[in-house]
Amino acid sequence: MTEFFGRHPGHEQLVFCADETTGLQAIIAISSTALGPALGGTRFHPYPSEDAAVADALNLSTAMSYKAALAGLALGGGKAVIIGDPDRDKTEPLLRSYGRFVESLGGRYITACDVGTYSPDMDVIAQESRHVTGRTVEHGGAGDSSVLTAFGVFQGMRACAEHRWGTPTLRGRRVGVAGVGKVGRHLLDHVLADGGEAVITDVSEAAVERVRQEHPEIDVVTDTMALVEADLDVYSPCALGGALDDTSVPRLRAGIVCGGANNQLAHPGIEKLLQDRGILYAPDYLVNAGGLIQVADELHGFDFERARARAARILDTTREVLQAADAEGVPPVVAADRLAERRMADAGRGRPLWLGGPTS
């Protein structure tokens, strides 16, 4: 494990969870509790190896720490991954077993939905743990967090449009959305309502067909690379991470990249490649914080309008980051990291470790 922690020296805790009876194999990564308990979703995915699962958990939990800090939340960052195919391996006994592991951390980690898990799954986990959010409306939760995730990405997109073209609107702009599942589908609604045009792609034909039924005016391309090479104003990765790499960035024609996917940069240095090409990149953990804001609000008795108002502030925070990047001559990722690290350092002094306890 030394090589993983060497790349993530700030991580506080890494927990391996195994239950032979239910087949559970899970990893919980707690990046930071300097601002409060670590909140982050549970990803259910068929990783090719345990090392790949650990690396993903560490990367995702780091992003959650920065995301919470940039969103102004009194929360730290964590993430969990369950190794397996959710369509085949997800069972109530397995989820309940996982819930017991979450509960064993005493509130240092609060879980929620992510890729492969949904609000009904959180209801099952909540039978074994108090430290669960992202629950169904029927059980006092906020429901689908992708609603405010998409709203926040749209606010970040508006800030980028203002920074690049002088006005915070997508009217008359062509936006390419890669992945029209949970977040991308809602994001399309905002873009089209704002007067923008859209072109999409998704590996799921069913997802594409759902969008076509709702918005027959959109264009569809065959795959992600075709979208990257399309004549776009904005490219919006909304599927899995690593969308911006050494192959895609040199072929990208859009002037702005702003999307909902986590960990969009395939490796360090991609942010500089984007900057060198004159492409304005909105850091994913800055603009996609709406879902985190939504599930965090649920901890205090969910109020949609209150959560939406906080998510709307992503517009102003994105403006602040882009202005700082210009002033300091650095990529927006560097400016966003500096802002998040400053907030964590200032608020976390004297309380470096959250030991559990009430979350509301």
TrEMBL record:
- What SUPFAM superfamilies does the annotation carry? Aminoacid dehydrogenase-like, N-terminal domain, NAD(P)-binding Rossmann-fold domains
InterPro entries assigned: Aminoacid_DH-like_N_sf (IPR046346), Glu/Leu/Phe/Val/Trp_DH (IPR006095), Glu/Leu/Phe/Val/Trp_DH_C (IPR006096), Glu/Leu/Phe/Val/Trp_DH_dimer (IPR006097), Glu/Leu/Phe/Val_DH_AS (IPR033524), Glu/Phe/Leu/Val/Trp_DH_bac/arc (IPR016211), NAD(P)-bd_dom_sf (IPR036291)
Under CDD domains, the record lists: NAD_bind_Leu_Phe_Val_DH
Q: Which residue intervals define the domain Glutamate/phenylalanine/leucine/valine/L-tryptophan dehydrogenase C-terminal in the entry?
A: 143-350
Which PANTHER family would you find in this protein's record? LEUCINE DEHYDROGENASE (PTHR42722), VALINE DEHYDROGENASE (PTHR42722:SF1)
List the active site: K79
- Which species is this record about? Actinopolymorpha singaporensis
Q: Does the keyword Kinase apply?
A: no
Question: In its UniProt entry, what is this protein called?
Answer: Valine dehydrogenase (NAD+)
Give the record's keywords alphabetically.
Answer: NAD, Nucleotide-binding, Oxidoreductase
Determine the domain of life of the protein's source. Answer: Bacteria
Residue sites binding NAD(+) per the record: G179, V180, G181, K182, V183, G184
